[in-house]
């Protein structure tokens, strides 16, 4: 039997989360994801939309039920941390997806989740575990289930007032709560701006086909890019923000960016010539503690070359 001291007080959890800089926080009972969502995930994987991200299909039973990930789990606490940086890179250099400009979000969010557990008097492993994109947790499902926002047609979580420029994290805790949140109704209405903005045709009414998405191709996929990818990338050499930039919920963000996610002066100063001459040592120094390490040096260079090749005038023999 749970004593009063064992019960999470929803109001306290949310107040501590806000104090730590999370812009949204909600709670839901730890339970299997609902049948409709489980069927959608299975359909999406069976169609191969995950591309080479095989880890999404592995340990699926854990992804579909957090109680299998954390035995004894009673409550999922979902949080969102806003990241939209205010500083940009040189317009005559290259762009990177906004989320990748500052510190690696995995480290920042997990560290804050640990602080949240400590503030609530909870101990990692004994009382539950923090997660941020490193374990089979269906993060967007839980963010929606905990009432943080809704899944937009660009397949990103949209948080009222904060748009989709948010990182997600979860605590899966072995304690019940005094109150749970309910999902928000989707507010995309008849809008299709993100679908129309996607240069790769990766978004459909059925969701995202990662195999076409520039974010997947430029970060997750190893080896050569499919033909025509460079021309779709514009000047962005890591990820893609086009469907987020198109969203009106991202147009007027009132919040101040978290300093952890601002680009370093060295990254801001990079010229096109410096990008072209980037050595493995430069890459390591520029992206120490950054999510960009995921693409690896070879991947980033491949992306730069693809953008440059697409921008180059045709060779004389090919010219009209
Ligand atoms: S990230 Fe880019 S390529 Fe991927 S769905 Fe959005 S707009 Fe399309
Ligand atoms: S651009 Fe429109 S359809 Fe897409 S997520 Fe935003 S509101 Fe929804």
SSE diagram, text form:
Blueprint lengths: L9 H10 L4 E6 L5 H12 L13 H4 L2 H4 L5 E8 L22 H15 L8 E4 L7 H7 L4 E2 L5 E2 L7 E8 L19 H5 L5 E2 L2 E2 L5 H6 L9 H5 L8 H4 L19 H4 L3 H5 L3 H7 L9 H16 L9
Antiparallel strand pairs: 1-2, 2-6, 3-6, 4-5, 7-8
The protein binds iron/sulfur cluster (2 copies).
Descriptive keywords:
alpha+beta; 2 domains; 4-stranded antiparallel sheet; two-stranded antiparallel ribbon; 14 helices; 8 strands; binds iron/sulfur cluster
Account of the protein in words:
- The chain is an alpha+beta fold.
- The protein is built from 14 helices and 8 strands.
- It has helices at residues 10-19, 35-46, 60-63, 66-69, 105-119, 139-145, 193-197, 214-219, 229-233, 242-245, 265-268, 272-276, 280-286, 296-311; strands at 24-29, 75-82, 128-131, 150-151, 157-158, 166-173, 203-204, 207-208.
- The strands form 3 sheets. Strands 1-2-6-3 form a 4-stranded antiparallel beta sheet, sandwiched between helices.
- The structure holds iron/sulfur cluster (SF4) (2 copies).
- One iron/sulfur cluster is lined by residues 154, 197-198, 200, 202-203, 208, 213-215, 240, 242-243.
* Overall pLDDT level: 93
* Total individual domains: 2
User: How much of the polypeptide forms β-strand, as a percent range?
Assistant: 5-15%
List the uncertain runs.
none
The strand count comes to: 8
Percent range of helical residues: 25-40%
Based on CA atoms alone, the radius of gyration comes out at 21 Å
Overall geometric form: globular
Cα end-to-end separation: 80 Å
The neighbouring-strand order within the major sheet is: 1-2-6-3
Structural class: alpha+beta
The succession of helices and strands, N to C, reads HEHHHEHEHEEEHEEHHHHHHH
Q: Report the major sheet.
A: 4 strands, antiparallel
Q: Give the number of helices.
A: 14
